[in-house]
What we know:
The protein is an alpha/beta fold.
Amino acid sequence: xxxxxxxxxxFGILINDRIVRTPVGIASMAGIVDAAYVLERxxxxxxxxxxxxxxxxxxxxxxxxxxxxxxxxxxxxxDPVEELKVQIARMEKSDVVLGINLRASSPxxxxxxxxxxxxxxxxxxDAHCRQPAMVAAGCGEYYLRxxxxxxxxxxxxxxxxxxxxxxxRVGVADDDPALAAALWKAGADILHIDLMDAGSARLRxxxxxxxxxIIANNSITSxxxxxxxxxxxxxxxxxxxxxxxxxxxxLDAAITRFADEEGWYNAPKQLxxxxxxxxxxxxxxxxxECPLIPTLARIGIPREEYIQMKLGAVRGTPxxxxxxxxxxxxxxxxxxxxxxxxxxxxxxxxxxxxxxYMRLKRELSETIMSRVFP
Length: 374
Ligand SMILES: Cc1cc2nc3c(=O)[nH]c(=O)nc-3n(C[C@H](O)[C@H](O)[C@H](O)COP(=O)(O)O)c2cc1C
Ligand code: SF4
Ligand code: SF4
């Protein structure tokens, strides 16, 4: 098996129909992160967003004025399509899954770029930039104050059949979870979230409001912080300012080792320990007063339906076993980080390794997510 297939077995991540080798990547920095920057670090990352690139007259004028102001670097060119074609071509032979971070002020600008460049890259809408000149041009944070305009641009790109990411900072829109849900409904594929210092509770709220792939960003420079993000709903993490080889290589090695040991590299914490709704895969039968009951009420799944959903999802799979466990099936059993003799015995009897157990719980959580977010 080649190493990309190994990577798929290990992490199970696809973006734009391509295998992502590792859930560590590079976030854009205007004037700095281009194909050359990414290729220098390609051995330690799975994905990268180059840019941001201004792609229409208002945003290109803003980029020029920012660069002329002297305190910001910007990518400047006469023709954004030509420039992006050159950058994309440089990445052609790389395993790094490529995205382009874009500043544009109208759905048509995104649409015509997608027509010109095609679907080999992820299109990331920059709803993040807070430079006044960009916001005045109708992009960056402008979109967070005008979510309808943002959703219109997502829809325009989706009509061209491309994969869409939205990059934004939390705490700017009126309601981040509502924004996430609206972006999902508009067709977005990826949320690339700068969490600032909001912490993992905000990330969990967003995870609980949509089934999209989530990239967590901001100061994720240690494995502890990376794990914190992965346990609260992130699928991947990105780095910008500290995207040096040493930091990226450290995170890549640590998460690879962790995945090989544990099986489910971004398993949530249990619900009662602050986990997101993917943690329903580890929840008991609803028989006591605990965070499960309000969670089911919030997502609108009646108790009986939850029971049937989990039992139905494991029927015919190895998680069907477990007559000696608390609730008669491994479907209700806890995360493997909670030691339990009964679960251990059941797994041993049926020749299921702890790693395989976590892989099966991941499958169960995916089924649950698709039921919660039909
Ligand atoms: C110099 C610089 C330029 C940036 N340019 C962009 C940009 O063009 N588009 C964008 O979405 N984010 C941009 N960002 C934000 C970063 O992608 C990232 O969200 C932020 O720096 C926080 O992540 P970090 O702590 O890993 O740096 C920029 C950040 C810096 C420092
Ligand atoms: S059902 Fe069990 S695992 Fe889930 S929140 Fe309640 S006590 Fe915790
Ligand atoms: S048998 Fe063990 S792992 Fe399963 S639900 Fe009971 S305590 Fe949790």
